[in-house]
Amino acid sequence: MYSVTKSYRDLPAAHRQPKHDGHCRYVHGHNWGFDITFAARELDENGFVIDVGKLKEVKLYLEHMFDHTLLINLNDPKRELFEELHEEGLVDLRIVNNCGMEMLASLVSDHVQLLMDQIVKGRIVSVIKVVCLEDAKNVATYSKP
């Protein structure tokens, strides 16, 4: 099995964890980063797992989700308020199952895997690991079993 990792950095987004008993219950921001590891049993005609220069759709997805956005949990009790703020143009809202690092790594893994069918044709390239960085201090990893 061969693998390659592509890194994305400096994606400024805010989030909150409404059930947290500390400061994480408040809206606050981070510079997010993601390291996405791709794997394949066979290399392409250039000897690559994947041509990392052709991952434009991955970059666009990450920018859509994490570039000056506000992430809230699907079950946030103030969801309606955040949706109103979005409608008024005050926040660029993204609603996710859970906006903690661990679940964001899983979310990115699942979505990027779907993009692989569009990017790679004729070979199987799998997303096997996503590392989510919350600033330079905290890291969570999601790996495929």
Query: Can you tell me the CATH superfamily?
Result: 6-pyruvoyl tetrahydropterin synthase/QueD
Under CATH at level 1, the class stands as Alpha Beta
Task: Estimate the helix proportion, in percent.
Answer: 25-40%
Strand content: 35-45%
Give unreliable regions as ranges.
none
Coarse morphology: elongated
Please tally the helical runs, counting DSSP H or I stretches of 4 or more residues.
3
What is the string of SSEs from the N terminus onward?
EEHEHEHEE
Biggest sheet, strands in spatial order?
Answer: 4-3-1-2-5-6
Taking all Cα atoms into account, the compactness measure Rg is: 17 Å
Average pLDDT, rounded to a whole number, is 96
CATH topology type: Tetrahydropterin Synthase, Chain A
Structural classification: alpha/beta
Largest sheet: 6 strands, mixed
Number of separate domains: 1
Topology:
Blueprint: E1 2-15, E2 28-40, H1 56-66, E3 69-73, H2 79-87, E4 93-96, H3 101-119, E5 126-134, E6 138-143
Parallel strand pairs: 1-3, 3-4
Antiparallel strand pairs: 1-2, 2-5, 5-6
Q: Care to describe what's here?
A:
By secondary structure, the chain is of the alpha/beta class. It has a single domain, classed as Tetrahydropterin Synthase, Chain A. It has 3 helices and 6 strands. It has a 6-stranded mixed beta sheet, with helices on both faces. Helix 1 (56-66) packs antiparallel against helix 3 (101-119). The radius of gyration is 17 Å and the shape is elongated. The model has no long low-confidence stretch (mean pLDDT 96).
